[in-house]
Design brief:
Layout: H1 2-22, E1 27-29, H2 44-77, H3 93-122, E2 129-136, E3 139-144, E4 150-154, E5 176-179, E6 184-190, E7 195-199, E8 204-208, E9 214-218, E10 224-230, E11 242-248, H4 250-263, H5 266-282
Parallel strand pairs: 1-10, 2-6, 5-11
Antiparallel strand pairs: 2-3, 3-4, 6-9, 7-8, 7-10, 10-11
Helix pairs in contact: 1-4, 2-3
The structure holds copper (II) ion.
């Protein structure tokens, strides 16, 4: 008996001491004023997206410079004053083959890493846990099927209720807490219209379609707070259904799960609502 009480007190104290730390992560995944380019990558997928973007940038800058230089050369070298009698030439087989074959080669060079990345982003074969995100008009709800199947809604904090450190139009009342260095399968769906679960730091932009379960994944590399938002025009409050993810160490995540299991217990919510309905019926 006493042992059980001691265990309960100990767990409670441990929870309190670590619960304070749960809010210790700094905001990493947010855009800054006058930011150019991408947010800092916080997943292997986003790292690859950025390097693929940089690679494409080199090719497109190269093509632009080449075309502009060619145009400038033609305009100066063959201008009317310098070249009064224009050439009547209409064909040059070599150059025609070249300007067909070289662009094809460039496209193939771009397509191969593009498809490789597309399949890498698609799903993870070794998922360690699952998070389910469900889009609603106009908020997100989440389920943790591998951790007791609890569920909660995540609703925007209105501007007048913001506390210091919270971001306008980005912070939510309940945060999605996820462990770092873990392969997390993310299942995305919706219950009314099409939404989109988008989180730039993770390289995720996944449509949430009613009646369909779309899959993506993330392995968060850094602890921190990451912001995202619904990215599919879904109705009048489309701009007001943000996503707040708090990435913590595996130990902190385990502690959060213990608290969340009771706080967001599905059975508890469902029992409560049936009790309420029963009461109403009796009246
Ligand atoms: Cu939406």
């Amino acid at each position: 008996m006493w042992n059980r009480i001691l265990i309960i007190i100990n767990t409670f104290l441990l929870f309190i001491s670590l619960a304070g730390n749960v809010n210790a992560e700094e905001v990493v995944g947010v855009s800054k004023p006058w930011q150019m380019g991408f947010r800092e990558a916080a997943s292997p997928v986003m790292e690859r997206i950025i390097s693929f973007h940089d690679f494409l940038m080199i090719i497109s800058v190269g093509i632009s410079v080449f075309v502009m230089a060619l145009l400038a050369y033609v305009m100066i070298r063959f201008r009317a004053s310098n070249n009064p009698v224009p050439s009547k030439r209409t064909h040059n087989t070599v150059i025609e083959v070249l300007w067909t074959v070289i662009p094809i080669i460039i496209l193939v060079i771009m397509a191969i890493p593009s498809f490789r990345l597309l399949y890498y982003m698609d799903r993870t074969s070794e998922a360690e846990m699952t998070l389910k995100a469900i889009g609603h008009q106009w908020y997100w709800s989440y389920e943790y099927p591998d951790h007791g199947n609890f569920t909660f809604d995540s609703v925007l904090i209105e501007e007048e209720d913001l506390k210091p450190g919270q971001e306008r139009l980005l912070s939510t009342d309940n945060e999605v807490v996820l462990p770092i260095n873990t392969n997390i399968r993310i299942l995305v769906t919706a219950d009314d219209v099409i939404h989109n679960w988008a989180l730039p730091s993770f390289g995720i932009k996944q449509d949430a379609v009613p009646g369909r379960l779309n899959e993506t994944w993330v392995n968060i590399t850094k602890p921190g707070v990451y912001y995202g938002m619904c990215s599919e025009l879904c109705g009048v409050r489309h701009a007001f259904m943000p996503i707040t993810v708090r990435a913590v160490s595996k130990e902190k995540f385990a502690i959060w799960v213990e608290g969340a299991k009771t706080q967001f217990a599905k059975e508890k919510i469902e029992n409560n609502s049936t009790k309420k309905i029963a009461k109403l019926e009796r009246k």
